[in-house]
Amino acid sequence: MAKHRLLIVEDDPDISEMLQIYFGTHGYEASVAEDGETAIKFCRANLPNLVLLDINLPDMDGYAVCHQLRQSPRTRHLPIIFGTQRNRKEDKIKGLAAGADDFVAKPFDLEELFLRVQNTISRAARNDLTDPRSGLPSTELSRQEVTRAEVDPALAIIRLKMANLEPYQDIFGALALNEVMRSVGLLLAELLDELGRHNDFLGQFGDDTFVIISPVAHKPDIIQQAKTRFRLAIPSFYSFGETQNNGNILTMTASGTQHSLPMLGLKEIE
Q1: Are the CB atoms for 223 and 214 separated by under 8 Å?
Q2: How do residues 55-84 score in pLDDT, each as one tens digit?
């Protein structure tokens, strides 16, 4: 099973290092952002499974960070836990109003914090908020966004379907396929950011399809760029030494048998 991805938003290096080490030794992929702007950019580009957010940050407070994440279609599904020395009722009410999922008081009890993080991620999965492979908004959330977009003629609904996933999984396994789905999700998120489409919706739709909602004028460029970048990324999905042959990949099994399987693909569907 792939590691859960945790973003620690904390400007105290001693605390952030302690948390990064602790969660790293407990099977998490833990990253650190020292200010709010960095945290927001990281969330858009890397889609963590949970954000552990300090309230007191150098550029903006945690409430503002939480509010911005909740306002963006790209990040509104992310679970957020506030870690704070403020344990007053009014601070908790303000945080919950901004969209926080939970609070943990400082100084941290690491065992309690770990359980709260674990439970919040599990709750998000049970509520079908996040696709466990790509980290993107789930099929259910994507369906809701598509329903809203269908009545707006200014918006384009772009569906990009992965091809040849089953033969890939047969040879390389489910974990490798999960990593492919995550990599493609990150590739699409990076593309939208580079095109300046920070608030365009990007989600998962079923097991093999990504959905993007963007103004109609941007649709051709998004599709062209997505296909080009995916094509350039294809070699990274296969092992060194495997060769391409007329749209197929020639690979060798552990027993020494050579297999030819169709390459992964990405195509637009209506």
Answers
A1: no
A2: 889 999 999 999 999 998 889 899 999 987
Residue 230 and residue 111 share a domain: no
> Rounded to whole angstroms, how far apart are CA atoms 189 and 182?
11
> Full-prediction pTM beyond 0.90?
no
Domain carrying residue 117: 4-126
Are 182 and 237 contained in the same domain? yes
Q: How far apart are CA 206 and CA 39, in angstroms?
A: 28
Asked, for residue 132, whether it belongs to a domain, the answer is no
User: Are 119 and 143 members of one domain?
Assistant: no
Is pLDDT at 145 greater than 80 in this prediction? yes
- Which pLDDT does position 134 carry in this prediction? 83
In a domain, 177, yes or no: yes
Place of tokens 């303000």: 94
Does an H or E element contain 26, and which?
A: none
pLDDT for 39: 97
Q: Distance of alpha carbon 67 from its chain centroid, rounded? A: 18
Location of structure tokens 């269908």: 150
